Amino acid sequence: GGIKLTHSVLGILLLMILANLAAIAITWKLARDWFGETSASLAALMLAVSPWPVHYSAIVWNPSPMPLFGAIIFLALFRCVKKEKSAAIFWLPLLILVAPQFHMSALTLILPLIVFGWLMRLKPNACSILNVDHSSHGRSSSEPISTKAVMRPNW
After folding, report:
1. CA 8 to CA 29: how far, in whole Å?
2. How would DSSP label each residue in 21-55?
3. How far apart are CA 104 and CA 140, in angstroms?
4. Average of pLDDT values for 101-127?
5. Phi/psi class of residue 30: alpha, beta or left (left: φ > 0; alpha: ψ in -120 to 50)?
6. What are phi and psi of 103, to 5 degrees?
7. What is the CA angle 128-151-141, rounded to 5?
8. Cα 52 from Cα 23, distance rounded (Å)
9. In the chain, which ranges are E strands?
10. How many CB atoms lie within 10 A of CB 24?
């Protein structure tokens, strides 16, 4: 599949590196929406310099795209929670079914998804933190840009 697209193994490596860069960007976006820019930067930095993801992004094997799939699955999940009739509800089950086709380690995402769904059923407004004003990235309009409020889920 990948060799036909890029015509070389180096091209596949570059695709894996781009996939991991996308996973870092999605992780940053999710963390920013939940906890603010400082926490988002720390989460992205931790993913970017973590030894195992860096090591696995330089080789071609099945688990290489898993960080991207995990990030996209959780992005779709949070969009479904945030918006009542989100189009992401179509992609969420599809991504969960496709991810194990790359590697069975994707099955480890099922338990966190079940726990999150269970928590949302017990306390539907548990994710009221997602009602952040995105135009100011979590800041109130009167708050200066230099102050950053760290938001936490109110479970």
Report:
1. 32
2. HHHHHHHHHHHHHHH-HHHHHHHHHHHHH-HHHHH
3. 43
4. 77
5. alpha
6. -160, 145
7. 90
8. 14
9. none
10. 19
The pTM assigned to this predicted structure is 0.68
Q: Give the separation between CA 141 and CA 135, rounded to whole angstroms.
A: 9
Q: Locate 22 and state its tokens.
A: 């996308």
Q: How many of the other CB atoms lie within 10 Å of CB of 67?
A: 22
pLDDT of residue 131: 47
Are the C-beta atoms of residues 115 and 151 closer than 8 Å to each other? Answer: no
Give the burial string for 128-141 (b: 16+ CB within 10 Å, else e).
ebeebeeeeebbee
Angle at 111 between CA 61 and CA 44, to 5 degrees: 60
Q: Of the segments 25-29, 60-64, 111-115, 139-143, which one has the largest average pLDDT value?
A: 25-29
Question: Is residue 126 within 8 Å of residue 107, measured between CB atoms?
Answer: no
Residue entry with tokens 């720390």: 42
Q: What is the DSSP string of 95-133?
A: HHHHHHHH-GGGGGGHHHHHHHHHHHHH-GGGGGGG---
Residues shown for the chain:
155
Tokens 């779709």 identify what position?
76
